[in-house]
Specification:
- This protein is an alpha/beta fold and about 230 residues long.
- It has a single domain, classed as Alpha/Beta hydrolase fold, catalytic domain (Rossmann fold).
- Helix content is about 25%, strand content about 25%.
- Strands 1-2-5-7-6-8-9-12-13 form a 9-stranded mixed β-sheet, with helices on both faces. A two-stranded antiparallel ribbon has the order 3-4.
- A hairpin with a 2-residue loop joins strand 1 and strand 2 (about 10-15).
- Helix 1 (about 55-65) packs parallel to helix 5 (about 205-220) and helix 2 packs across helix 3.
């Protein structure tokens, strides 16, 4: 394990996170000792260049860490230094569960999830209904991307508070299709549109951070901005 100071926060490399395919490369932005939640953040499609360093994932991490929460980011199997090979979203769900298990062992407190694009789809499937996960924020929900269709009927079994953030010009998530997907989700559920934003929220990431912060503060009164 190595540590580095990033502003007032401590960034740790995690060496003991392993999934079914072996070690998963991971970074932890540490939080305050009294943080009421710990957070898992998942990156977009690896075959499209997605990694834990993705800008959208970084901004989501910063939004939630502003409450003093520890945030774990990791690379899916076959990405960066993570062992294994890409599994089309199936094995990646097991990677998410392994990361949840690590956070649960490390912190023994409720968890929050956030993910972008492929990471949102895979993470939602793994986290929905998990009693350890108190809330979920999905960014850039994909419907069809690079020849692959994404389905969301499983959201019907997702009782936790949910936030969905998409751009109205998202090339992988047309407005009517995203609205249909989110419609499967029972309340509490909130869909926020970033007007004029594309899939990657280019030039609009500050707005995304604000939306995440506002939602988290409204849903979880225990959170206090740092």
């Amino acid at each position: 394990m190595t540590t580095a100071h990033v502003g007032s926060a401590i960034l740790r490399t995690i060496d003991d996170l392993s999934g079914p395919s072996g070690r998963l490369e991971a970074l932890l932005n540490e939080g305050t000792p009294d943080a009421p939640f710990a957070v898992l953040a998942c990156h977009p499609h690896p075959l499209g260049g997605g990694t834990l360093h993705n800008k959208v994932v970084f901004h989501a991490m910063k939004a939630l860490q502003s409450f003093g929460l520890p945030v774990l980011r990791f690379n899916f199997r076959g990405t960066g230094l993570s062992a294994g090979s890409h599994d089309g979203g199936r094995g990646e769900q097991d990677d998410v569960r392994a990361a949840l298990d690590w956070l649960d062992r490390e912190y023994r407190r409720p968890l929050l999830f956030t993910g972008f694009s492929f990471g949102a789809n895979v993470g939602l499937q793994a986290c929905c209904g998990d009693p350890r996960v108190s809330g979920l924020a999905a960014l850039g929900l994909p419907i069809r991307a690079e020849g692959r269709d994404y389905h969301y009927e499983f959201l019907a079994n997702c009782p936790q508070p949910k936030l969905f953030v998409n751009g109205t010009l998202d090339q992988f998530g047309p407005v009517p299709s995203v609205e249909k997907a989110v419609g499967y989700a029972p309340p509490p559920s909130k869909l926020v549109w970033i007007d004029g934003a594309d899939h990657f929220f280019a030039g609009r990431l500050d707005e995304v951070r604000s939306v995440i912060r506002d939602w988290a503060a409204s849903q979880f009164p225990a959170l206090k901005a740092k």
